# Entry
Amino acid sequence: MILQSLAGLPAFLVYFCTALIAVIAYLFVYTRVTPHNEFQLIRDNDAAAAIALGLSLLGFVLPVVSAIAHSANVIDCFIWSLIALVVQIIVYYLVRVPVPKLSERIAAGELAAAIWLGLASLAAGALNAACMIY
# Structure
């Protein structure tokens, strides 16, 4: 009975590790694209940076979850994770249009700018995840 339950463990580990690598890659790329240093700001107790990055991460993870659930294999899952990363980078640049100096405002601790970026990222991630159903 236990062995039967553990039969899916190798696939779990492969997909979980793939997702973990995708998340690390996302955080690496995203924090290089944005002019503000999210992790330093978070270390300095800047709630705005934590909100923006945390919601952005959720916006990335939602499509990764969908990719895991719907992909044909782990390579397919990784490709869709890369697409999710690109979508989140595009969203970052798009939300800067109506809010000038977005990064500077987040670095200054302005919550409105952080919430705008974070929720726009989350919305794009939810749409992205829904569109990955094939």
The two ends are 33 Å apart (CA to CA). The mean pLDDT is 95.
